[in-house]
Amino acid sequence: QVQFVESGGDSVQPGESLRLSCAASGIRFDRRTLAWYRQAPGNQRKWVAIITSSNIETYSDPVKGRFTISRDNAKNALYLQMDTLNVEDTAVYYCNLWGAADDSNWGQGTQVTVSS
User: What is the per-residue pLDDT for 96?
Assistant: First the structure.
């Protein structure tokens, strides 16, 4: 069964950094395009960053230049380094396959709160 477990969320002040981690199981991890998503209160879940099996990275405009996605295929792990956080980054962050449907397997997510 496909499973994703996110961790690393915290409450921080604007300008600070966080590193999120995601442990995946039940998939051929090294062959899949993976993504980080986030859902802010009252909003739909949106993609944040994508990384292909060839380590090609793509970022949504709001996080471009501040966030970095990476993967460790040996550990079936996905990471999101988030720098220069701002209040608009406050959301629950999820990892999953790129293009995952709303009714697919989603983890509980990890809460990131940015406030002064």
Answer: 97
